[in-house]
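Internal ticket - ligand job 662, flavin-adenine dinucleotide:
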Amino acid sequence: MLKNCVKMIVKHHVKGWNEFEALVTKLETEKKPINVFFSGDKDESGKSWCPYCNQAYPVITKVVETAPPESHFITVEIDRPFWKDLENPFRKDTRTHLVFLPTLLRWKGAQRLDGSQAANPDLVEMLFEDED
Amino acid sequence: MSVLSFVKRSAGIACRTVTIQHRKSLNNIRLTSIRLFSSNGESFEYDLVVIGGGSGGLACAKEAVQFGKKVAVLDFVKPSPQGTKWGLGGTCVNVGCIPKKLMHQASLLGEAIHDSQAYGWEFENPQSVKNNWSKLVESVQNHIKSVNWVTRVDLRDKKVEYINGLGYFKDVHNVVAILKNKTERVLNAKHVVIAVGGRPRFPDIPGAIEHGISSDDIFSLDREPGKTLVVGAGYIGLECAGFLKGLGYDATILVRSIVLRGFDQQMAEVVKASMEEKGVHIKMGTKPKSIEKLEDGRLLVKYAFNDKPDEVITDTFNTVLFAIGRNALVEDLQLKSAGVEVIDGKIDVDRNSKTNVDNIYAVGDVLYKKPELTPVAINAGRIIARHLFNDSDEIMDYDDVATTVFSPLEYGCVGLSEEVATERYGADNIEVYHAYYKPTEFFVPQRSVRYCYLKAVALREGDQRVVGLHFIGPVAGEIIQGFAVALKSGLTMKVLKTTVGIHPTVAEEFTRLLITKRSGLDPTPATCCS
Ligand SMILES: Cc1cc2nc3c(=O)[nH]c(=O)nc-3n(C[C@H](O)[C@H](O)[C@H](O)COP(=O)(O)OP(=O)(O)OC[C@H]3O[C@@H](n4cnc5c(N)ncnc54)[C@H](O)[C@@H]3O)c2cc1C
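stdout (structure tokens):
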């Protein structure tokens, strides 16, 4: 139990591709699971331009609290014009290859949920708990 | 964050985790206490428990939940003798159709790269073009892993309970799952479906299990296969030898008696010849005797021709792949506890896919004398669910199932072989139309058209109902699928002959079949568009 108490999921929050890539490249070296939530960025009121992201956000936030401790969780906010550019690296980079926002995925893994799946607590829980 | 607040927060998280887990187990208890009542008042924990999460089992489970039923699927993969294991989804997804088709495609692309030069594509050092095995394996395995994941998402989404455990029968209504941590969980079920599939067989010769591999291992092999000996000439053996050759590895097949048993033997001969033309060595009438590992890691194989068993031939290979057949996985099931009968290591079912035990059904490769194909298992699995839970009287039609051998030059067929048609109707009552043809695309790169061949087996009388169609050539699977629909709809030669083709395609050759075997005329074409 004590062991559990000192280990916890490490949360990160970045905006845009460059910040994301720099962070994930650094975290990769730790060889711990990295789960990433790609979503539309939010306005002052905390709402995103991407409707499904707004649905997924509270679900994921809640599940993260009970996720396996030895892991990283990155929230990536992406602004609308950047995302709408079909040539943007989130879509084009073979490591992300995003098609939808939101997408929740295990970095370098097969686990991926997108669109309304990312707002399904059962599925989100399964993604966080899945061992590679 | 101070150390103290860090510890406090984490403690909070840890404790929350505990409460949630606690709540989960309470949920489980509550769930298990909700029992389902059958008409005679008996109660069960599950409406349906499926043993085996492959093509047939998953299809059955997913269909059953559509009718609001409580369903669990057990799936467990025992590692191969070489230690290969894989995820949820069964043979087809992990070690069958899917990786096989991808490696076949990789091999065809190699041919296409070669051909492309005649079509004007230029690249430096065409001779140095080679396949990178580990990259191919990585791509194939990544695709499989994403299919495993999507399958689990699908099950969770549809509320099919997936249990990663090895199942066996305690009695007719109770299936035990042996979980990863060796604990056992009893699942009480009204109906049980056996969908355990099969696994490759190894021959009883020295060194086979220790040094040999099978189709279970090849698609994730962590080293280049190199010079490979394939033992067995069923479709799996031919396909493996075919793609390995196409990827640039020396491939030899040992054939005990015939190639592609169960398929039309004239077509089988053509497939065999086309593989030999591509450089696959095929040794007919041979049997392996032993495999030894040499100091340098290579495998010394001793084999002999059936008619000269004492003249031992030796050769060395990097890989020996056994494709001599598959055994249904009935052993672990403890079928006796439920009274399910086994015939020749398989399970027989009635037209509703029911075994000799009233509430136990079976589907897929475990079945006695049924085609071992994924779409067959899927269809039959769905029909079982509709029969059990939706009062459907639909029965699985095992006749005229189309299939394709993905040899380098593919062979697709539907319906009867010429032999079976002859036996069933008599030689005098059937007419066989056949032709060699020349795919337009083959001319430019001067690819061999020698083995591009097709035939239609029809009844002789009246409009000549077609009972079998056979095609060897590119994309045979894509072609035969549509013709299978026609055949099942009662296709006649009269209709086939009045159908206008799509030019230039290879599929149109079926509409141009005019020469009968009986006429003795030459079935080779003179020019491309005559
Ligand atoms: C190399 C190869 C290529 C193939 N190519 C094709 C093709 O191109 N087209 C085609 O249609 N078919 C192809 N097949 C055949 C196809 O894969 C099978 O027909 C199909 O997978 C059968 O489905 P199934 O549901 O009967 O069993 P499977 O898909 O084999 O699934 C059975 C599952 O049950 C599990 N299991 C077994 N025992 C237990 C137990 N006691 N408890 C829990 N779980 C258990 C197994 O581990 C497995 O995961 C190919 C097969 C091979 C080997």
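Auto-summary: Chain B touches chain A through 18 residues (CB under 8 Å). The longest helix of chain B spans residues 3-33.
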